[in-house]
Write a structure and sequence with these properties.
The protein is mainly β. It has a single domain, classed as At1g16640 B3 domain (Beta Barrel). The chain is built from one helix and six strands. A six-stranded mixed β-sheet has the order 1-4-3-2-6-5. A hairpin with a 5-residue loop joins strand 5 and strand 6. The chain is globular and about 30 Å long.
Length: 87
């Protein structure tokens, strides 16, 4: 299981001005705090990466490598929460 996850369908959360921010990922009744970082690699686009807890979250959710995950921002105040669905 990978230790980080690129967020290809979630634009960079522009209210984050620094590099690393804690966010909460949810999937059903599972909630895990992870670290969100603005992606600064060679891919086009402006989006983020989650790490620092992603591996634990993916394990708790029984996500399989190669599965399609849909990330939806459901709250940004006072804490950012991203809901994750897997197909």
């Amino acid at each position: 299981m990978m230790s980080s996850q690129l967020l290809p369908n979630v634009p960079h959360l522009s209210h984050f001005t620094g590099q690393r921010h804690p966010i909460i990922l949810t999937h059903g009744h599972i909630e895990v705090e992870v670290t969100y970082t603005r992606y600064s690699g060679k891919r086009d686009g402006s989006f983020g990466v989650i790490s620092g807890g992603w591996e634990n979250f993916a394990s708790l959710c029984n996500f399989k490598p190669g599965g399609v995950r849909i990330f939806e921002v459901i709250s940004t105040e006072p804490v950012t929460i991203i809901q994750v669905r897997c197909r």
